[in-house]
Design goal:
With 165 residues, this protein is α/β, with parallel strands linked by helices. The chain is built from five helices and seven strands. It has a seven-stranded mixed β-sheet, with helices on both faces. The chain starts with a helix and ends with a strand. 36% of the residues are buried.
Length: 165
Amino acid sequence: MASTIVDFIKSNINAGSVIADIGCGTGRFTSLIAPIASLVYCVDSNEDAINEARRSIKSSNVVFLNENADSLSIPDHSIDIVLLAFSFHDMANRESVVNEIKRIIKPGGKVIIIDWVKEKTPMGPPVDVRLSEEDYIKAFKEFTPIQVSRVSQYHYGIIFKAPVS
């Protein structure tokens, strides 16, 4: 995991934020952001991944949810920041996921995206399952992109601002 990715994520998180790490897998990013946040929801539909995250992350401010991203138990408008790191491209019903993010995020909250560039690289998922920056901008059409940048040789980052009304 390149430090530039970690730096990109951390530089976009305010201390004391409530964060939903959706598609958290085994919690590698949750473990890095928990010390900064007041609360982190570590969410993944894969029970084995969530159980591994639960075993490895001992922070008292992390809530582990074995749930699908399009049907979350997180309260309405309770999230300051949604993190989607290498996960959204694998989600089946992306439109429902975006609608669920709109439900849980506070007005003006941030969505942090980290994903693979949509080109052949020596590692990572097949190119045909990857999403481009433009694909994300279309999927999050009601959100405002405030930053789009290359965060490492094979990855990009996008920051979206949630609608305020």
